[in-house]
Amino acid sequence: QVQFVESGGGLVQPGGSLRLSCVASGSIFTIYAMGWYRQVPGKQRELVATITRDYSTTYADSVKGRFTISRDNAKNTVYLQMNSLKPEDTAVYYCNFKARPAVSVGATSLWGQGNQVTVSS
To answer: pLDDT digit string (tens) for 54-71?
Structure first.
């Protein structure tokens, strides 16, 4: 079983910063891409940012210019640096790996358990 350890969430004031991290443990044959999603109660989960193996990145318009995604391929880790945080950024943040768990199976989407980010005065 592939497991994820997420950290870095918490309570922060508007305008503050947080850095989320997510590390995958267990056997993974290939990781093709990593990403971050977030979800607010009563709403659908939305994409925040993604990064490929060649470090190409994609961002949601709502976070562009404020958030930065990065990865360490050797450590199977993805990060999300969040600056200039706003109350509307409050959500549960989930890491996501597009990966091939073993040579015998194809690529699939793997999810972390999520961690809470609260932006409030």
So the answer is: 999 999 999 999 999 999
